[in-house]
Amino acid sequence: xxxxxxxxxxxxxxxxxxxxxxxxxxxxxxxxxxxxxxxxxxxxxxxxxxxxxxxxxxxxxxxxxxxxxxxxxxxxxxxxxxxxxxxxxxxxxxxxxxxxxxxxxxxxxxxxxxxxxxxxxxxxxxxxxxxxxxxxxxxxxxxxxxxxxxxxxxxxxxxxxxxxxxxxxxxxxxxxxxxxxxxxxxxxxxxxxxxxxxxxxxxxxxxxxxxxxxxxxxxxxxxxxxxxxxxxxxxxxxxxxxxxxxxxxxxxxxxxxxxxxxxxxxxxxxxxxxxxxxxxxxxxxxxxxxxxxxxxxxxxxxxxxxxxxxxxxxxxxxxxxxxxxxxxxxxxxxxxxxxxxxxxxxxxxxxxxxxxxxxxxxxxxxxxxxxxxxxxxxxxxxxxxxxxxxxxxxxxxxxxxxxxxxxxxxxxxxxxxxxxxxxxxxxxxxxxxxxxxxxxxxxxxxxxxxxxxxxxxxxxxxxxxxxxxxxxxxxxxxxxxxxxxxxxxxxxxxxxxxxxxxxxxxxxxxxxxxxxxxxxxxxxxxxxxxxxxxxxxxxxxxxxxxxxxxxxxxxxxxxxxxxxxxxxxxxxxxxxxxxxxxxx
Amino acid sequence: xxxxxxxxxxxxxxxxxxxxxxxxxxxxxxxxxxxxxxxxxxxxxxxxxxxxxxxxxxxxxxxxxxxxxxxxxxxxxxxxxxxxxxxxxxxxxxxxxxxxxxxxxxxxxxxxxxxxxxxxxxxxxxxxxxxxxxxxxxxxxxxxxxxxxxxxxxxxxxxxxxxxxxxxxxxxxxxxxxxxxxxxxxxxxxxxxxxxxxxxxxxxxxxxxxxxxxxxxxxxxxxxxxxxxxxxxxxxxxxxxxxxxxxxxxxxxxxxxxxxxxxxxxxxxxxxxxxxxxxxxxxxxxxxxxxxxxxxxxxxxxxxxxxxxx
Lengths: 584, 310
Prior knowledge:
Helix content of chain A: 55-70%
Number of strands of chain A: 0
Largest sheet of chain A: none
Order of helices and strands of chain B: EHHEHEHHHEHEHHHEHEHEH
Shape of chain B: globular
Largest sheet of chain B: 4 strands, parallel
Oligomer: heterodimer
Strand content of chain A: under 5%
Radius of gyration of chain A: 34 Å
């Protein structure tokens, strides 16, 4: 065991160090900002009720609460009393031996609880179609890693139960007898009662009967073994596994299965330590901190606070506290837009991952990637309904994050020249300012800040197909009623200077197929959608609906440009394949 | 009175941006015996419409499917939600290809479009009060008539037009809102821009123009002698409130803007008349307050001087 002990000690210290360094790297951007106020009572309550018992989750999502509690109790119990037994169990628990009860069966019960929780978590992610959408590699990896730790633990224990080698070592260390009859008897007892699988059957050294040997062995067992060994059957999971393994146990033992599995089990645990600061499991550290920092739910009253600064501790803690449980995306009001646009950044959990990735510098150039455009588009669709913030079990003020992101992403429009075209497009999508949209399509400006759009294929057929159908404009006699009743035209001091084209002119151009010539007109973007034009048109032209369709077509083009020729739709979402917040 | 059960569709803006509209509406419906079911709806699709009509129709259709599964019709206080849901009904009935695609996406979620879309079409708060409860019933339930209060009823475009899509009221000469305002005992003043847009759809896209439209309406309502602007739409209310705030902050030539008639939501107006909560906006306006000092103020519309000459 000398080498394995070195392996364990060195491995443990190395992974602990790597874990700490990982956390250090992860929080290196946390700087400044006002730290949360110290409010002992609510914060203590938050720590106990919310961080430890997760009672706030019990009301909103009983299944999620139940499975998380299974994982939490199972894993923490095993971590503290099994993995760290030398530090905790030995010192605190009277007469602690890992092979005595209640410790032996408790370990099995905790392991089983953990596996049950993991299985429920996996099932939940597959069953709920909305949750499935936002379930990525990292979510599965975290579940798989925990499951691997528990399963290798069980198989290891099962192999130990059946192992002749382990039995022989223990006999050598503790039996204190050379009497072959007693040893043969002990072997018999351990084969029958403890489930050790011996390569060769027990041979009676001096021709005693099995019963005689057994009673000799039983005496010895009670003398030297029973004080440290409860019946292995109480390790109910491992024992059942041992029974199942019995036919191949001898061969496994001969091949060194116990040592091998021990290494695998320990390596899985080290891998868990290395992974802890980076993947979703970091929430085990950050989420309790966040819950204590924000001991009460965010009230849904507008303009309550200004969002935290992007570099501040509260802002970063909130970003890191996301457990990627998916609750926000499951309940997201604009989830349906994802189904059509295929942009995962419509969904809060994915937007948050993108924001975090921007902070970590995971996007090579945060301003040029298609991700920035997706973030702008997705976030632009957010209606600020506050539901994600209401359901977030980590009490992240998501609403404020989205409002802050909208504000910061639309900033580059102020000085277009100083930013890349992609950044400008993201800003365009974020702000949707009439002037900026019109400028993006205006002939004069197109060469300066926006590459010529006409090189790209025409966007796919519009669902209503109004602009493409001659019948839409059949009746138009250019009577200018639409323009005369237009609220916006009436409110403009100089309509031509402020709006470029009047509604009836736009109808005429579109009728002639000159759609590109209309998209740069500010009238298209400054339509207030009051539908007066359409209501009053004596010829039944759907003026306002046509303007809507023009905006849809322009948005599709901007999108295609930013995403490299894709027009979106389901395939777009599938192509991403992995969480948008994940590192490549 | 027949049994009136609807499923409540507050829309996205109420919970965070205008919770008082939700509270006032629920209180009024409770008082008038309209039963409301609660469901977790998604966005009506109105905000997504500029970007993608298909996303907008799917969002709306999903809500119609949810309400249909719950066996009730949608009742919404927001005219933009109402209008967009109505648009979705209209287009789903007419464009087969769109309906098929929407149905496919709904099926993925285990939902189905209502077989009779016309029957599943939403109803607006004002329609339910006018047609199900009835202005006469409301008038007889009023305990504190808002006598003398001069109210400009703001129709809200998205419920009104296009009339063949929304089927809300006569799009050129609607009467429902005035009827309901008068049921509270108040006076509905005629004003020229009552059917015009509040400006909100341009807020953020062309904020200067949006504010210009809002100001024009406030100015017109004031010239008509209105003490309050009455809305029945989340976005209209947000726009009038926002405009007052924004212009009150600016030292521009238009000040003092606090003279612009404040906006009040219809359920707040009705709630005050029914003896429920009275909003601050109404206190001391136009009539003897039913609690507090009983001094009626003279409508101040006579000095329309020029504060609005922009």
